[in-house]
Amino acid sequence: MVLCLGIICLVSSAVLAGVYALTKEPIAAAAAAKTNNAITQVVPAYDGEPEAASIEAGGQQYDYYIVKKDGEVAGYAITASATGFGGPVTVMVGVTADGTVYNTSVLSQSETPGLGAKCTEPEFADQFKNLDPASVKLAVTKDGGDIDAITASTITSRAYVGAVNNALAVYRAIVEGSTPDVSTGATVPAADGQDAEECQTQQSK
C-alpha cells in the first residue's frame, strides 16, 4: 500500500510539474498582453515601450509605467487598488504629465455581478475620463463628492474612487520625489440609508 501511494504521489507530482511548465509561459504572456492593453487604454499615444517602475508606501508596492512622446514624458499608467465589497478592486489609472486623469481600466475585481461588477461599464468608468482632480472632489456623491455611484453599489464605487485617489497620490510622489500618502481601503463612515451591498453584508453576518 505504501509503495502504491508513493508511486501515485510521484506520478501526480510529475503531471503537475509538467502542466505548470507547459502553462507558465502562456499565462505570463497573457498577463503581459492584458497589462499592455490596459496601458494603451489609459494613457495618450506614446512612442516606444512603456518603462516599468515601482514605488513603495505603507509597506505596499505600487507598480507604474512611464510613457513618452517625442522624448518627453506623456503620462504614467499607475496600478492601484482599494477594498470593495468582494475584495480588492484593482485599477490602472492613466495620469498625464500635467496631472489629469486621462482614463482608467479595471485590472481585476470580484464584485457582485449585476451590482458592483458594473464598475467596468462606461456609464460609471467614463466619469474618470479627462478628469482634472483640481476641479472635482474625488468622492461619491453620498460622501459629498462629485462622482455618481453605481446604483445600489456604493461600497464598490468608493473602492474605485479610492483606487484612483491612491494612484494620484503615487503620481504626486513620482513627480515630487516624495513618499505616497495612500490609504489601504475605501471605507468611510456610513451615511444614512443602505444600498444593496450593505444589506448583503448584514445578511451574511
Tally of separate helices: 4
What can be said about the biggest beta sheet?
A: 5 strands, antiparallel
Radius of gyration: 21 Å
- SSE series: HEEEEEHHH
Number of strands: 5
Give the CA-based shape.
globular
Helix content: 25-40%
Share in β-strands: 15-25%
Derived structural class: alpha+beta
How far do the termini sit from each other? 46 Å
Spans where pLDDT lies below 50 across 5 or more residues: 184-192
What order do the strands of the largest sheet run in, or round the barrel if closed?
Answer: 1-2-3-4-5
Mean pLDDT across all amino acids:
86
Report what the structure shows:
The structure is a single chain. The chain is 38% helix and 24% strand. It is α+β, with helices and mostly antiparallel strands and 205 residues long. The chain has a 5-stranded antiparallel beta sheet. It is globular and about 70 Å long. Mean pLDDT is 86; it is low at 184-192.
